[in-house]
Each structure stands twice: as C-alpha cells, then as structure tokens.
From TrEMBL:
Xref: InterPro entries: MnmA-like, MnmA-like_C, MnmA-like_central, MnmA-like_central_sf, Rossmann-like_a/b/a_fold
Protein name: tRNA-specific 2-thiouridylase MnmA
Enzyme's top EC category: transferase
Domain tRNA-specific 2-thiouridylase MnmA-like central intervals: 202-268
EC id: 2.8.1.13
Marked site positions, Interaction with tRNA: 126, 334
Length: 358
C-alpha cells in the first residue's frame, strides 16, 4: 500500500511513519507548511509548523530512509481554520481548531491530494485506532484524540491510518529513542498552534477590534462590568470577567451565555451551567449513517473529559442529545462526539457541532 505520512516534526508522527515503513508500506513523508510566518510559530512547547519543525521532520525522514516533501497549505489553513476560528468567536461560539484542521486540512485537502497522486492512505500520529473502518479511542486514555477525529466520514476513515493508537505515550518516546530519532524528547505542542503566545484574547482582539458590550447578571439583568468584545469570553469561564464586586452570596460567577448581536455576556452561579439537552447541527456519522432515529450513546463535549450517558434523536439535518446526567461548560461551536454505549465505550458513532443547549 502506498502511504503518505504526515510528519509534523514531532515524536508521534515520526514513530507513526516508522511503523508504516515496518508494516511494509511504500511510505513518503510530507510536512505541511501551515503558517505564512513560520519563524514566529515555535516557542518551546507552544506553536507548531515552524522551520524548526520542518527540519525535525526532514531529519526523521532521513533516518527512516523515505522520500520527504514540504507542501504549502498555508493559504488553505488560514481560510479554513484560522478565519473560521475568528469568525466563530465573533459569533459568541467556542470552536475547536484542532478538529477543524483534521476535517478541512489533514483529511480533506491533504487526503484529496494524496489520493489524486495515487496514494492509498494518509498516516498520522494521532492517538486513535482505526479497526476495520471503526474509529476507536486510543489505548492511552490521557492522549486519546478520537474526539477531534470524530468529524471524519466513512470514506475518509477508509483512507486513514493511525499506527500509534495502541501504544501509551511513554512507549512511543522510548521507541523513538531506540530508532535514533532526535525528536524522542521533543516537548509536545499544546494550546492553539497558531497562537504560540497562548494569549487567545489578544490574538482575537487584533483581528476583530474593540466591540464594547456589557457583562450582566443573568438573574437580575444588572450591569456588572463593561468589556471590549465577546471574543474574550467562553461559556464556563470564571476568571477575567472584569467584575469588581463578588456575588451577594460570595460565590464565584461564571459565563453562562453570550449574545453576539448585543454584545452581552451573561454571568451567574456554577449551578446555572448545568446542561441536560444539547442541540447540534451538521452531524457526521462514522459508519455513513446514524445508528437509528433514536439510540443510546455516550456523549463527549470536550477533547478530554465531559462525558455522560445519553440518548440521541436524529432530527432532519441535526441531532438532539438528552444527557442522563448534566454536564457543565457546554458551549455553542464546540463539537459533541457520540460513542457506542458498550462496556469499553471506545467506538465513535459520529459527531456534530453544538448549536444550542438547555
């Protein structure tokens, strides 16, 4: 099988490519240049897609003795991931750029080009398992990335290979060292790759400009503070609200909702964050279709954590998920991933983008 190995310059993708070679595949490595200013996107464990990362990927390919290329996807990444991220915050939503990158870049733009060039599959260093077309959680629960891959369609999964999903992260690092890969001890990237400073509010403010509004008490409607833009807030946020005085009961306030048209941010007690019903749009079913019009599942609303047993009801081009137990910090724009409710709970059924909660 001809396999195109996406090599980010990190340890995970390097070992994934190595395992693809060991499996006897005809492997070609490719590094995606996603930034128009690559010199500015690496600071220790923050950021990615820098010249340093491209060089690390090339050295790993040399060790594996496979062809290696750098493909410029910066314009596509900017339009489909960065611009989408900014637009979502401007609408009071909380997007997941990693999920969008998998959907639009790695398993759309990259996979489409790979298939056009005669490759059979794209191999990545994601922590997940693809067993017979079924997307499953990784063995390493702390590193599992099935949530951000749940947006993949059946056809995309048919051409996706995740070689390291059966190995805990320490084992991947140890294997890299044994193979002589210099990235064995390279720090994992974290936060949002295109915001290496980690300051999301400043990043968004520079692109959206000031959009003043009020922070109000959700129960009384009283104005508690002013803000420069709703892009500085997300549902469930506790800090950085700009409120001088504590709540009358002395308990902390949290962001409960964001109204983009008026620029109003509603705050209140933690108990008001409880969500029992999630409405979502644009569902993607891993098997090509929903398991049924109504089915039991396990819902996950964050990359790590935020799980609850649930019942999903397919409603036209959307899905309504009734949670058995309430979850907190569930915001429009996030993804909800649905898993099979068996004892392991590791098979992905599908995902959708949250549009409303109750």
């Amino acid at each position: 099988m001809r396999v195109l190995a996406a090599m980010s310059g990190g340890v995970d993708s390097a070992v994934a490519a190595a395992r693809a070679v060991d499996a006897g595949h005809d492997v070609v490595g490719v590094h995606l240049a996603l930034s128009e200013t690559p010199d500015a996107l690496r600071s220790g464990s923050r950021g990615c897609c820098s010249r340093e990362d491209a060089a690390d990927a090339r050295r790993a390919a040399d060790v594996l003795d496979i062809p290696f290329y750098v493909w410029d996807f910066a314009a596509r990444f900017s339009a489909d991931v960065v611009d989408d991220f900014v637009a979502a915050y401007a609408q009071g939503q909380t997007p997941n750029p990693c999920l969008r990158c998998n959907e639009k870049i790695k398993f759309s733009a990259l996979l489409d080009r790979a298939l056009a060039l005669g490759f059979d599959a794209v191999c990545t260093g994601h922590y997940a398992r693809n067993l017979g077309g079924e997307l499953r959680r990784a063995v390493d629960a702390d590193k599992d990335q099935s949530y951000v891959l749940a947006v993949l369609t059946r056809d995309q999964l048919a051409h996706a290979v995740f070689p390291i999903g059966d190995t805990p992260k320490p084992g991947v690092r140890a294997e890299a060292a044994e193979r002589g890969l210099r990235v064995a001890d390279k720090p994992d990237s974290h936060d949002i790759c295109f915001i290496p400073s980690g300051d999301t509010r400043t990043f968004l403010g520079a692109r959206l400009g000031p959009r003043p509004g009020a922070v109000v008490d959700a129960e009384t409607g009283a104005e508690l503070a002013r803000h420069d833009g709703i892009h500085g807030f997300t549902v469930g946020q506790r800090k950085g609200l700009g409120i001088d005085a504590p709540a009358p009961d002395g308990r902390p306030r949290y962001v409960l909702g964001i109204e983009p048209v008026s620029g109003t941010v509603r705050v209140g007690p933690a108990s008001a964050l409880d969500v029992r019903t999630v409405e979502a749009r644009r569902p993607v079913w891993s098997a090509g279709e929903a398991p049924g019009d109504r089915f039991a599942c396990v819902a996950q609303v964050r990359a790590h954590g935020g799980l609850a047993a649930a019942t999903a009801v397919v409603d036209g081009d959307g899905v309504v998920v009734e949670l058995d137990e309430p979850l907190r910090g569930v915001a429009p724009g996030q993804a909800i991933a649905l898993y099979r409710p068996d004892p392991d709970g590791d098979v992905v059924l599908g995902s959708a983008t949250i549009s409303a909660t109750r």
